[in-house]
Specification:
SpoVIF, Sporulation protein, globular, mainly alpha
Length: about 80
């Protein structure tokens, strides 16, 4: 049943669940006050979502997360990317 659920999500979004799980695992011990780490996460989310993030938007997201204005999770970054 769980497998059907994930397959359904993959078909609807075009995002492979293995990619999402790999990203989630990489976030567990990451330092989100480190600009380089946050940029790396944004780039990974951008790749998974198949959406280009302009440098100016990336800078805005990084500053927001590093300064503690936003929490770092897939939904937050995805929403910021989709606002452009």
């Amino acid at each position: 049943m769980e497998n059907k659920f994930f397959k359904s999500i993959e078909q609807k979004t075009g995002v492979k669940m293995n990619d999402v799980f790999a990203l989630a695992n990489s976030l567990q011990n990451a330092n989100f006050k480190d600009e380089k780490t946050v940029r790396s996460v944004i780039q990974k989310v951008s790749q998974i979502a198949n959406k280009k993030v302009p440098k100016q938007l990336e800078d805005k997201i990084v500053n927001s997360i590093v300064n503690g204005d936003e929490k770092l999770d897939f939904n937050t970054i995805s929403n910021m990317i989709n606002k452009k």
